[in-house]
């Protein structure tokens, strides 16, 4: 259930969310890559990133496959 979020590309402010403040279940977040400025919705189940070809998870951080060394910022949306 990954949704592309073309309508959300405007929100590039720095109001990131904290991590680990939600109960364990499916969460949809928007990942923003600080390197290439990609903004894409990704899903987490039980704090694990659902299969996604463009993003990979290391511990609590999500990295884009463009080679960014910085983790993506994660934003919540509903
Ligand atoms: Zn990137």
Report on the structure:
- This protein has 78 residues and is mostly beta strands.
- The chain has one domain (1-6, 24-78).
- The protein contains no helices and 6 strands.
- It has strands at residues 26-32, 39-45, 48-49, 55-58, 61-64, 73-76.
- The strands form 2 sheets. Strands 3-2-1-6 form a 4-stranded antiparallel β-sheet, with no helix packed on it. Strands 4-5 form a two-stranded antiparallel ribbon.
- Strand 1 and strand 2 (39-45) form a beta hairpin.
- The protein starts with 25 loop residues before the first strand and ends with a strand.
- The site of zinc ion has 7 residues, from loops.
Query: What's the helix count?
Result: 0
- Give the overall pLDDT as a whole number: 80
Q: How many strands in all?
A: 6
The string of secondary-structure elements, in order, is EEEEEE
Q: Can you list the ligands bound to this structure?
A: zinc ion
Task: Give the proportion of residues in helices.
Answer: under 10%
Rg on CA atoms, Å: 11 Å
> How are the strands ordered across the major sheet?
3-2-1-6
Low-confidence parts, pLDDT < 50 over ≥5 residues?
A: 7-15
Main sheet, how many strands, which sense, barrel? 4 strands, antiparallel
Strand content: 35-45%
Backbone structural class = mainly beta
Total domain modules: 1
Distance between the termini: 14 Å
Shape: globular
In short, what is this structure?
This protein has one domain (1-6, 24-78). By secondary structure, the chain is mostly beta strands.
Topology:
Blueprint: E1 26-32, E2 39-45, E3 48-49, E4 55-58, E5 61-64, E6 73-76
Bound molecules: zinc ion (ZN).
């Amino acid at each position: 259930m990954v949704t592309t979020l073309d309508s959300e590309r405007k929100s590039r402010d720095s109001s990131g969310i904290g991590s680990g403040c939600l109960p364990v279940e499916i969460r949809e977040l928007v990942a923003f890559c600080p390197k290439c400025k990609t903004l894409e919705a990704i899903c987490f189940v039980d704090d694990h990133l659902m299969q996604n070809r463009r993003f990979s998870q290391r511990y609590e951080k999500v990295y884009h496959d463009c080679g960014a060394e910085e983790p993506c910022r994660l934003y919540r949306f509903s």
